């Protein structure tokens, strides 16, 4: 199949040809027709398989058929979890839409907001944004959504994860109900699927790889090692292996800074990239890494989303991630678009639970390789493959106010019965604490009736 068979117009086909592509990837071949038909889509594909073009190309095609965006209006909104991913998507829109009369704008935090407000005054056919900066602009009346036709959530698993769900709900509340919804991601965990299905209408589900599988072009193994010797082993691997380029993942920002300093002290040029860094510093660090001025780029999971580095040979998990799906995202930075890569994890004994979760998710035991001079004092226990299906967690329901009980109606003169009363430090029963609402003073609040076998509350001073 060629791009000519997918229903794309001549200006877009010309841009694709100029980029050197002739045949669509599997995700593009399935997603582009569905998006052009106006259907809602949930698509899962490994990082590096062209999923960004999978929504960018049909989005440009659809928008090119309509009228322009008015001042401060947006016709298509693409939400991404990080600045780097927003910039990558914006670049894709520019590349494939350069022969079209469409306007696109990218907005994210870490830079001044005024230039972004000025850019939105002319309207945007496509707006690529991170959630926080988008809400800032909306609250300042710099962006409106009356003309919105399409919503895209890129890296949807992370966007809809608990850390982003509140921002997403705020944004959904201000968007028109009638719109096309596209959710693209490298993986969809069961709980994320449950949440996502509440946002899309009869979606076309596309999966071109086994769920949560890792790319076959990536060779994976782990080195059991004591936690205190991880940095020493990392330096050994980079130096002895003569690695020219390696992306190192740290679980925390503080850890990323510490690893970077120790690598620099050993003579290995390194830079850190995480949320506390300014956008300028992050952009410079990435440019230095791509151009070979820096051998090691140390990143946190969120900061690494959207990093597009061609032919990246090595990825190192200095710490295993707390969320197993993040492992798939991490190692997806290497072995992209058919290239080969190596993913090495440095695993201490206290990371056994994370290792088991990763192996259960990917349904693959990770090969262990011991390094003679770094044999761990605290051995990493063996693991066996857990083949039980992973059940989705039920979404947490908001707590509703307690119903007032008939026996405790205000003004009835009756008293509510209760048990398990608090006791003061001397053993005497203490009066129940009144409910206090800031700004309203003291008010009485009916108490729930006694429940059988209620455990007594601990004594309070």
TrEMBL record:
HAMAP family per UniProt: DEAD_helicase_RhlE (MF_00968)
Biased composition (Basic residues): 451-461
Motif Q motif location, chain numbering: 1-29
Physiological role: DEAD-box RNA helicase involved in ribosome assembly. Has RNA-dependent ATPase activity and unwinds double-stranded RNA.
Domain Helicase ATP-binding: 32-206
All copies of domain DEAD-box RNA helicase Q, residue ranges: 1-29
Positions in coiled-coil regions: none
Low complexity: compositionally biased ranges: 415-425
Subcellular location field: Cytoplasm
Annotated region (Disordered), positions in chain: 377-461
Protein name: ATP-dependent RNA helicase RhlE
Alphabetical GO biological process terms: response to temperature stimulus; ribosome assembly
PROSITE patterns reported in the protein's UniProt record: DEAD_ATP_HELICASE (PS00039), HELICASE_ATP_BIND_1 (PS51192), HELICASE_CTER (PS51194), Q_MOTIF (PS51195)
Sequence similarity: Belongs to the DEAD box helicase family. RhlE subfamily.
Alphabetical keyword list: ATP-binding, Cytoplasm, Helicase, Hydrolase, Nucleotide-binding, Ribosome biogenesis
Enzyme Commission number(s): 3.6.4.13
Root EC class: hydrolase
GO cellular component: cytosol
Superkingdom of origin organism: Bacteria
Classification via InterPro entries: DEAD/DEAH_box_helicase_dom, DEAD/DEAH_RhlB, DEAD_box_RNA_helicase, DEAD_helicase_RhlE, Helicase_ATP-bd, Helicase_C-like, P-loop_NTPase, RNA-helicase_DEAD-box_CS
UniProt source species: Marinomonas pollencensis
């Amino acid at each position: 199949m060629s791009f000519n068979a997918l229903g794309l117009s001549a200006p877009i086909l010309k841009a694709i040809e100029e980029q050197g592509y002739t045949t669509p990837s599997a995700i593009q071949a399935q997603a582009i027709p569905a998006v052009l038909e106006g259907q809602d889509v949930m698509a899962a594909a490994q990082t590096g398989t062209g999923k960004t073009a999978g929504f960018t190309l049909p989005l440009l095609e659809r928008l090119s058929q309509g009228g322009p965006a008015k001042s401060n209006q947006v016709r298509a909104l693409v939400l991404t979890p990080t600045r780097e991913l927003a910039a990558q998507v914006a670049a894709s829109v520019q590349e494939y839409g350069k022969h079209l009369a469409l306007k696109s704008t990218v907005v994210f935090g870490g830079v001044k907001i005024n230039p972004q407000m000025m850019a939105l005054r002319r309207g945007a056919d496509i707006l690529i944004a991170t959630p926080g900066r988008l809400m800032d602009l909306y609250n300042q009346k710099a962006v409106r959504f009356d003309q919105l036709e399409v919503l895209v959530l890129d890296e949807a698993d992370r966007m809809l994860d608990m850390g982003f769900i509140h921002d997403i709900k705020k944004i959904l509340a201000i968007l028109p109900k009638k719109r096309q919804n596209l959710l693209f991601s490298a993986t969809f965990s069961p709980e994320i699927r449950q949440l996502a299905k509440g946002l899309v209408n009869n979606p076309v589900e596309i999966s071109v790889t086994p769920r949560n599988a890792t790319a076959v072009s990536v060779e994976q193994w782990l080195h059991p090692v004591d936690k205190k010797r991880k940095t020493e082993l990392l330096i050994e691997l980079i130096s002895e292996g003569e690695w020219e380029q390696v992306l190192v993942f740290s679980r925390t920002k503080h850890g990323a800074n510490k690893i970077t300093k120790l690598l620099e002290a050993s003579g290995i040029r390194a830079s850190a990239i995480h949320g506390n860094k300014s956008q300028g510093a992050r952009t410079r660090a990435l440019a230095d890494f791509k151009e070979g001025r820096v051998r090691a780029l140390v990143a946190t999971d969120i900061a690494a989303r959207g990093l597009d580095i061609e032919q990246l040979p090595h990825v190192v998990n200095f710490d295993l991630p707390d969320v197993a799906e993040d492992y798939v995202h991490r190692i997806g930075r290497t072995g992209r678009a058919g290239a080969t890569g190596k993913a090495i994890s440095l695993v201490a004994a206290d990371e056994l639970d994370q290792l088991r979760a990763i192996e259960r998710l990917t349904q693959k035991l990770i090969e262990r390789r011991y390094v003679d001079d770094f044999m761990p004092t605290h051995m990493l226990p063996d693991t066996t493959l857990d083949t039980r299906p992973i059940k989705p967690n039920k979404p947490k329901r908001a707590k509703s106010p307690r119903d007032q009980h008939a026996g405790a109606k205000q003004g009835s003169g009756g008293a509510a019965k209760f048990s398990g009363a608090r006791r003061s430090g001397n053993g005497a029963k203490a009066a129940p604490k009144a409910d206090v609402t800031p700004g309203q003073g003291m008010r009485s609040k009916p108490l729930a009736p006694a429940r059988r076998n209620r455990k007594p509350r601990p004594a309070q001073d």
